[in-house]
Amino acid sequence: MSRQGREMNGYCAEKAVVPIEEALMAFALVDISRVEKFSLEKEKGIPFISFVIKEKEGAVFIEPHPLFIADGLLKERKTEGREILYRADYMQGSREKFATGVLFAGGKQETFLGLLKSNISSGNAKADIMGIYSYLETHLTLCGLERLAEEEIAFMGKEEAGSANYRKANCAYYKEILSYVETSRRYLNMVASGTLLPPFPERSVFMTEWYREHGGSQ
How far apart are CA 211 and CA 217, in angstroms? Predict the structure, then answer.
């Protein structure tokens, strides 16, 4: 299981219902620099998301988590018919920024970005005031690419993955993917919207060039 998967499975504790004022105060005072966990994710510039889920007699505050973990947290709770406040802490122009929004959960359990998208589509003007949906979606895609590349590099360390030359070529390609992810995050965090990412390293092109330089056949 990947490190991201372990982090996701490790978050199972039920959060306590507290007075709404207490939850909103914690929500407003979020300071990512003081979050002790996830130091690597902070260094990488991955957005952090926190939530306040309104309950009948109060609210639940869910502390900041990196986007790839936070995206699935709402599916772990019964949020049908609930009002959910979210806060996204992110980088823009190399400066720390945050955006907030209000989501309304319907009868289907959804991920955070799935619920955000459906609220935008349904005309909820409070869902994405800062217009960061595409920015967050791209960051989540990059997290998925990073996880895939790390898993493939680990697998290429095993003999059953193929010939030595094949494994070296694949490791080189997936390291190129990691470099792409790092560069793309930097581009995204320079400008939060309308950012053109670098060209994606196409596998066939990369592998042809690698074998040309290192000899051997694919």
Answer: 6
Computed from CA positions of residues 64, 66, 69, 75, in that sequence, does the dihedral angle turn out positive or negative? positive
116: nearest Cα among 138, 90, 137, 140: 137
Return the amino acid letter for 98.
F
CA distances from 120 to 47, 48, 72 (A): 20, 20, 19
Q: With contact defined as beta carbons under 8 Å apart, do 13 and 37 qualify?
A: no
Angle between helices 133-155 and 164-190 (to 10 degrees): 160
Residue 144 and residue 153: Cα distance in Å, rounded? 14
Is 178 a residue whose pLDDT tops 90?
yes
**Percent of the chain scored above 90 by pLDDT?**
65
Within 10 angstroms of residue 147's Cβ, the number of other Cβ atoms is 16
Q: Is 217 left (phi over 0), alpha (psi -120 to 50) or beta?
A: beta
pLDDT at 218: 52
> Which contacts (CB < 8 Å, 24+ apart) does range 196-200 have?
197/138
Q: For 195, which DSSP code?
A: P
Look up residue 1 and give its two tokens.
Answer: 């299981």
d(C-alpha 156, C-alpha 214), whole Å: 18
